[in-house]
UniProtKB/TrEMBL annotation:
Origin: domain of life: Eukaryota
Official protein name in the record: Putative probable basic-leucine zipper transcription factor I
Length: 52
């Protein structure tokens, strides 16, 4: 079964400040990165895909 859930949240203002770490690979090369996301949103979309 595949469950696909899309949520749309509308708020006057959503402020986000978060650190993140990314890891992945391209071929045999490993890529890493980090940073800080500092943003403001008035609309927010959330997607979730579940496969069972």
């Amino acid at each position: 079964d595949i469950i696909h859930l899309i949520m749309k949240i509308h708020a006057p203002l959503i402020k986000v400040k978060s650190g993140y770490v990314l890891m992945g690979s391209v071929g045999k090369q490993v890529l890493r990165g980090d940073g800080v996301l500092n943003a403001q949103f008035s609309k927010f979309y959330s997607y979730k895909l579940l496969i069972k």
